[in-house]
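yo

u said u wanted the structure for the complex thing, so here. seqs first:
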Amino acid sequence: VSAYLDSATAAPLHPVARQALLAALEDGWADPDRLYGASRRARILLDAAAESIAESIGARPDEVIFTSSGVAAVHAAVLGTLRGHARPGRPTRLVYSAVEHSAVLNAARAHSDDGGLTDAVEVDSLGRVAVEAFARAAAGADVAALQAANHEVGTTQPVAAVAAAIEPVPLIVDTSQTLATAPEGWSVLTADPRVWGAGPGIGLLVVRTGVRWSSPYPEDERRLPGVPNVPAAVAAAASLRAIRQSQADDERRMRGQIERIRAHVAATVPDVDVLGDPVERVPHLVTFSCLYVDGEAVLSALDRRGFAVSSGSSCMSSALEPSHVLVAMGALTSGNIRVSVNPATSDDEVSEFLGVLPGVIADVRAELGATGL
Amino acid sequence: VNLDSLHLDCRGRRCPLPILELARHVTDVGVGGLIQVDADDPAAGPDIRAWCRMRDHEYVGASVAEDGTPRFTVRRRH
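structre next:
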């Protein structure tokens, strides 16, 4: 009995990604910018990967830039778009939602340390920004960032309405939890291909033609320094294409599994807060917080039983700070558990998890002496 | 005997211990009574607020103890 239920961090390697990766390791190891056969083979693979990804997300191949990770893509998106909008004698201003991925918050802090201006837009208890509030904050700003959906609670954001309301301010949209799909209106798109089972070592940065973006790193002959991970790019492209083909069916099944978890947790675990929008959300993840529970103890107990989940509780961060997403929502941060599935997750795995969860929570509470409260 | 107010020292205690203390002692004060919790865990503030919402008590606000430790005040509602 075991189940991997942390696919919102990284899904297990998709069979198509594995196949593509192995083939591309044979042919894609050389530098793609040299004048010999091995280089040309690597170049062909890299260009084909960019074309395939561009087609999957509705972009042009020359708008696709490969980075080393999803986090690196977000850093390059935020700092590079700010750099592209820099003007002498005037600090640039970045506006972002308070529940963006920590990569956005960390890039914002770097910008602010460099003398730039930043504004975080608050969210409601479901974790969603209000279009009007975002638009007010973004008036006169240089760059804005809003995720397609929240990575911790799954709530989708009003990206299309925000993009229209803040025009002409360019909008950076992180699509890591929506398989690189975003409504129209984005200027810069980022994604973490691990979430669709592409494996580590690759991130996606897509800059719309005409959007002013300039690498925030030391100059290089490429748009971002260094040779991209060609085999990982091929794996990301192939698995994105594969996962798009069965997306509607997969999402229906995952939505059902998550709905089952939401209902079962609320019914069988006392003193629990199931978080995020119950309807307007991504299909594959759910988060809940339990009163009088140490998140780390739950994760360890579940791990001992073979279940992998994640947590936004402070015990899980090196700085011992609670998740900024949960704090921004006014949600309980302790005893927080995020469960996320992928298209290969079976209903039996979900059942097994639901079978052990209430007992695990009760044990952790009993250990803390939190009974009868 | 219910008290009018109560002070809980949760310095150095990691979450979820501060809200656990709060839950154990909320009935030590009468309905309408105040409980002050001194807690330095960064999660204590958000968690005490969330506890009040989930348990239907009133989160009165945050201040600072003499030694700089964050202090949170809660009013028992029921």
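Residues 126 and 150 of chain A are 10 Å apart (CA to CA). Chain A touches chain B at residues 271, 273, 289, 291-294, 313-315, 320-322, 326-327, 330-335, 368-370, 373 (CB under 8 Å).
cya
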